[in-house]
Write a structure and sequence with these properties.
The chain contains 7 helices and 11 strands. The chain is of the alpha/beta class. Strands 1, 2, 3, 4, 5, 6, 7, 8 and 11 form a 9-stranded mixed sheet that branches. A two-stranded antiparallel ribbon has the order 9-10. InterPro entries: Glyco_trans_2-like (IPR001173), Nucleotide-diphossugar_trans (IPR029044).
Length: 254
């Protein structure tokens, strides 16, 4: 059965070529750009004619839905530009699409700050990425979007890793974290949710304990310690942003 490899991108010129090199076996590559200001679209067009641009950003969920709609084939493999499909995963995908329709998860292995992270709650990081277009689709969440799987569709596991080159450096981590914190707090505020700085501190502390101790982040060396600290900080920031949005007053006029 033919497969459409689908990507949503923005300013991914530094990643995209290496990602697409691992997808040339797919029957179709679909790239939906959100308004890149670098060479992302030019690189994408070296691999496929199915390159579109939609700058009306309404969140990750909506953008993935738009990208799905551009795919011509029944099977969709959703991939991010900072990911790489390994040969073992590719072979598993090609076998899976010969079976009855199902949703398939891939095990994602992330490279961060100089090493692959095999603990810290990061691995095995199972993500749903291969699915029949007519029977499953992404929800409309602004951030942390999820694939909605109908009850009559089973979830199976692929073999092989999906390599994830998540952060280029510390600045990239902090910028990405701030973006997600803002989107998360906007979504929660729209739902009528509130937060306190105390709840942010407690969630941040719990995040560190979970990652570094319960999920054996200490086995990831110095990177594991750094990631636990940064994740705790990012967790606190989400709640702090929500507190600022919902509990603080507008500037006084003089």
């Amino acid at each position: 059965m033919p497969i459409s490899a689908v990507l949503i991108v923005k300013n991914e010129a530094h990643h995209l070529r290496e990602c697409l090199d691992t997808l040339t076996w797919a029957d179709e590559i679909v790239v939906l750009d959100a308004g890149s200001q670098d060479e992302t679209c030019a690189i994408a067009r070296e691999y496929t004619d199915n390159v579109s641009v939609n700058t009306d950003w309404q969140g990750f969920g909506i953008q993935r839905q738009r990208a799905e709609a551009l795919a011509r084939h029944e099977w969709i493999l959703m991939v991010d530009a900072d990911e790489r499909v390994t040969p073992q995963l590719r072979d598993s995908i090609l076998k899976a699409v010969q079976q009855p329709p199902a949703v398939y998860s891939a095990c994602r292995l992330s490279w961060c700050f100089g090493r692959f992270i095999r603990h810290s709650g990061w691995y095995p990081d199972r993500v749903l990425r291969l699915y029949p277009k007519a029977q499953a689709s992404y929800n409309a969440a602004l951030v942390h979007e999820k694939l909605v799987v109908p009850g009559d569709l089973s979830v199976q596991r692929l073999t092989g890793d999906l390599l994830h080159y998540t952060y280029r450096d510390l600045r990239h981590y902090l910028e990405k974290s701030a973006h997600y914190a803002q989107a998360w707090s906007e979504q929660r505020a729209a739902q009528g949710k509130t937060a306190t700085l105390g709840s942010g501190f407690i969630h941040g502390l719990a995040c560190f304990i979970k990652m570094y101790l319960l999920k054996a982040g200490f086995k990831d060396g110095k990177q594991g310690f750094l990631l636990a600290l940064l994740s705790a900080h990012s967790t606190f920031n989400k709640y702090a942003d929500l507190w600022i949005r919902t509990r603080t007053s507008a500037p006084e006029k003089r």
